[in-house]
Structures are given as C-alpha cells and as structure tokens.
Amino acid sequence: GADEIDMVLNIGKVKEHDYDFIEEEVRQVKKACGDHTLKVILETCYLTKEEIENASKACYRAGADFVKTSTGFGTSGALVEDVKLMKSIFVDREVKASGGVRSAEDVAKMVEAGATRIGTSSGVKLMKGLTSDSDY
After folding, report:
1. Within a 13 Å sphere around the CA of 41, how many CA atoms are in the beta-carbon half?
2. Which residues of 57-92 are buried (b: 16+ CB within 10 A; e: fewer)?
3. How far apart are CA 126 and CA 121, in angstroms?
4. What secondary structure does DSSP assign to the chain, as a single string?
5. pLDDT per position in the chain (136 positions), as tens?
6. What are phi and psi of 97, to 5 degrees?
7. What are the catalytic residues?
8. Is pTM, for the whole model, over 0.85?
9. C-beta atoms surrounding 23 within 10 Å
10. In what order do the strands lie in the sheet with 4-8?
C-alpha cells in the first residue's frame, strides 16, 4: 500500500566510482516501484561534491523521482550547496533536503536552493516559528 519508496544509495559503489552499478540498481528498484515514487537517499555527508554529482546523474538516468540528502543516521544533514548541486541535475524532478533543518530560515534556504520537500524532526517547532535545539 505504500505510495513512495525510499532507498539508500550503495555508498560503497559510489566510493568505488561504479556509477554503472548505481544506475542499474536504481533502475531495477524503480522498475519494481512501477508508478510509485522512488526517492534515492545519497547520504551526502559521506560523499565528495564530485560523488554527489555523479551519483545524482546516475539516479536521474535510472528514472528516480527524487534524490534526497540523508537518512538522519549519518554524521550531518542537508547542506545548501549539496541541494543546489542535486537540483542542477534533477531540474525537472524533485530534491528532498533532510536533516539539519532547524529553523524557518533553514527551510527558506533549502527551498531557494531547489528543495521541493523538507525532512525534519522539528516540524511542529518550525510551524510555530521556533528554532529547534535538536542535535540533528
């Protein structure tokens, strides 16, 4: 009954620069998802800018609907420059900025960078105009 599927990119294969593997794996998951939305989590905190760019390109070619910055379990969350880079590839598709979004100002920066969705554990505080003191 799920309408959207999140998958985590194979970070080991990104580190090996095996983007053909990444593309094929994402393609197979998208095929299994059918018409449902596939979001691919890059876990950008572990990747270089070049790896983010190449992984995003592989996900795009494979038909992913979204690329997403992080799971919430990595060493940091979304960075504006990473969201901008991901959106430069996913121009006509979606980017989700997840993690580290703690204030309305953070949300505005991510949206300006190209995020079409925000993942945060601080949604209630943000809607009240407050800043979260969460570590993530």
Report:
1. 18
2. ebbbebebbbbbbbbeebeebbbeebbebbbebbee
3. 10
4. --SEEEEE--HHHHHTT-HHHHHHHHHHHHHHHTTSEEEEE--GGGS-HHHHHHHHHHHHHHT-SEEES--SSSS----HHHHHHHHHHSTTSEEEEES---SHHHHHHHHHHT-SEEE-S-HHHHHTT-------
5. 899 999 999 999 999 999 999 999 999 999 999 999 999 999 999 999 999 999 999 999 999 999 999 998 888 889 999 999 999 999 999 999 998 888 889 999 999 999 999 998 888 888 888 788 765 5
6. -95, 115
7. 6, 68, 96
8. yes
9. 19
10. 4-8, 37-41, 66-68, 94-98, 117-119
* Residue showing tokens 């379990």: 73
Quote the tokens at residue 38. 């596939």
Name residue, tokens 């995020």.
115
Structure tokens at 17: 């620069």
